Structure formats: structure tokens, C-alpha cells
UniProtKB/TrEMBL annotation:
Stated name of the protein: Ornithine carbamoyltransferase
Organism whose genome encodes this protein: Candidatus Termititenax persephonae
Keywords from the named record: Cytoplasm, Transferase
Segments forming domain Aspartate/ornithine carbamoyltransferase Asp/Orn-binding: 150-296
Lineage, top ranks: Bacteria, Bacillati, Candidatus Margulisiibacteriota, Candidatus Termititenacia, Candidatus Termititenacales
Pfam families: OTCace, OTCace_N
Keyword Cytoplasm: yes
Residues involved in carbamoyl phosphate binding: 53-56, 104, 131-134, 256-257, 285
Catalytic activity as recorded in UniProt: carbamoyl phosphate + L-ornithine = L-citrulline + phosphate + H(+)
Pathway entry: Amino-acid biosynthesis; L-arginine biosynthesis; L-arginine from L-ornithine and carbamoyl phosphate: step 1/3
One Gene Ontology term from the biological process aspect of the record: L-arginine biosynthetic process via ornithine
Family (UniProt): Belongs to the aspartate/ornithine carbamoyltransferase superfamily. OTCase family.
């Protein structure tokens, strides 16, 4: 049997990605109804964290617990991935102990190296290039509202980062219509992604027909030295109540968190009782990752 990994959404066909969205939807419904789904009884997941985490760590830990398995947290200081010990050696060792590996790290090459040398499935919990687990949670969140992602209009406003890249990959597999709104110099690299998206520099024009408006921090983790430069470049790209007035009445607001309130998004928008679905996104990390784990381990 060929080993399956979840490093990028683009590595899987449209049928698989859409199946995972529906599976996540069903697992969430079961959890809400109080029905146990211990599909991974006795399975273990090694979780490597080179970057700090709230949602990734807790959601994967709870996911394994509710699926009947066990998660093991490994910090950067304990592992020293690529420094204290080589990536291949870590991959080979953890493969002897655990049934799957999840990594949240900086360089995408580290996730690829783990996948190459591990004999168990490897999950990309985040790299500087991609954040596929977040995009799958976003897919579930939009699917719950629309019932079908094909033709749904998503506008992403802000720095083209790992989340943007994975959303573009998601659009390729689901028919999602994605618009990226960013200033020159901060747009996605079409050659790397190979994805289809509309690029607009004017936020007002970008949100005019949007079903969903998505934003993220302007300076990602590890880019703290660029914060002042990016804050200046993106000062006209804030998602605020004035921008929402230019969008359709039923538009929904998304953010992958953590948020820098007052920068990329304002309090009244992220906390809007009707338009904000930010914390549904956060919850859906749990259910989307359950679907990924079951897909890789069953």
C-alpha cells in the first residue's frame, strides 16, 4: 500500500478533497449529536512544533482523543529538528513509535523531508509556504453555509502568504472563485502555485460581489522585523465597517487567527454577531483534521 501524506492540497485530486470536506461535515454532526466515532482506536500521532501554536496543537490533540487515539507533543527544544538531529533521522525514528507525524515548522523543505523519509503518514500543520489544514477548515466553514463551494466568491485581502497559497490550491479542487486583493509586491506567485485566481489591487472593487471576505495578519510569525514596513504597505487594506458597506449584505467575514485587531481587521468586524464566522473557522480545525487523520490512517 502506498503511503499517503497531507503536505499540500494540490497533491490530492478533487474527488479526495471534496470527500474530506463532506467527511468533516459528517464527523462534526456526529460530535454535536454526542455520537462517538472512535475510528482510530490505539493509533498515535507525533506532533512536532517548531512554531508556537494554539489552534493547531489543541485541535489535533482533541481530534486524536475523540477518535480514540493519542497525541504526543514535541517542542522545538526537545526535538531540534534539523539541528540537534537530522530531519531524516527524526522521520525514521518517529515512524517506529507512532502511526502518523504532524509538523508545524518554518521551511517547507522540512515537511517534505519528513514525508520523504517517514514510513508513516506526515501532515503539514503549517509551513511558511502552505497551511493546508487551515484551508480545509475554511472549506468546511464555507460548505456549511453554501452546501457547495463551486462558484462561491471568496475575496482574500492582505499579504499573500501560506494561507492564501493553500486557499488557491483549494479553489483548484473545489471550483471556489477566489480573488486576491493585495498591493504590488505582496501578491501570490502564479508559477509556484499553478492556480487560478483573480488579482485586484483595490479593496472596494474586490469585495463588491464577495460571498466571503478573508484576511490574515500582515506580518506572519517570523516576520516581526518587517511589521512596520508591512503595516505601511497595507494601511489601505484593513477589513473594517466602511469596507463592509461596499460588499453584499449577506457577506461573511473570515480570519484564520491569531488576529492583530486594529491592523488587518477591526473589533466591530471580527466580533460582528451576524457577519463574522471567525470562531466557526477555529472550531472547524478540529473537524477538518479529524477527516484528514481518518483518511490517512484508516
Amino acid at each position: 500500500m502506498v503511503k499517503k501524506d497531507f503536505i499540500s492540497i494540490s497533491d490530492h485530486d478533487a474527488r479526495t478533497i471534496n470527500h474530506l470536506i463532506r467527511q468533516a461535515y459528517n464527523l462534526k454532526a456526529q460530535a454535536r449529536a454526542g455520537k462517538k466515532h472512535e475510528l482510530l482506536q490505539g493509533e498515535s500521532l507525533a506532533m512536532i512544533f517548531d512554531k508556537p501554536s494554539t489552534r493547531t496543537r489543541v485541535s489535533f490533540d482533541v481530534a486524536m482523543y475523540e477518535l480514540g487515539g493519542h497525541a504526543i507533543n514535541i517542542t522545538a527544544g526537545e526535538c531540534g529538528l534539523g539541528t540537534r538531529e537530522s530531519v531524516p533521522d527524526v522521520a525514521r525514528t518517529l515512524s517506529r513509535f507512532c502511526d502518523a507525524i504532524m509538523v508545524r515548522t518554518f521551511g517547507h523543505d522540512i515537511a517534505l523531508g519528513l514525508a520523504e523519509h517517514a514510513t508513516v503518514p506526515v501532515i503539514n500543520g503549517l509551513t511558511d509556504l502552505l497551511h493546508p489544514c487551515q484551508a480545509m477548515a475554511d472549506a468546511l466553514t464555507m460548505y456549511e453555509i453554501t452546501g457547495d463551494l463551486k462558484g462561491v466568491r471568496l475575496t482574500y485581502i492582505g499579504d499573500a502568504n501560506n494561507v492564501t497559497n493553500s486557499l488557491i490550491n483549494l479553489a483548484d479542487k473545489t471550483g471556489l472563485d477566489i480573488t486576491v486583493c493585495a498591493p504590488k509586491g505582496y501578491t501570490p506567485d502564479e508559477k509556484i502555485l499553478g492556480g487560478q485566481f483573480t488579482l485586484i489591487s483595490d479593496p472596494v472593487a474586490a469585495v463588491k460581489k464577495a460571498d466571503f471576505i478573508y484576511t490574515d495578519v500582515w506580518a506572519s510569525m517570523g516576520q516581526e522585523k518587517l511589521a512596520a514596513q508591512k503595516n505601511k504597505a497595507f494601511k489601505d487594506y484593513q477589513v473594517n465597517s466602511q469596507l463592509l458597506k461596499k460588499a453584499p449584505k449577506n457577506v461573511k467575514i473570515m480570519h484564520c487567527l491569531p488576529a492583530h485587531r486594529g491592523l488587518e481587521i477591526t473589533d466591530e468586524v471580527i466580533d460582528h454577531p451576524e457577519k463574522s464566522i471567525v470562531f466557526e473557522q477555529a472550531e472547524n480545525r478540529l473537524h477538518a483534521q479529524k477527516a484528514i487523520l481518518v483518511y490517512l490512517l484508516k
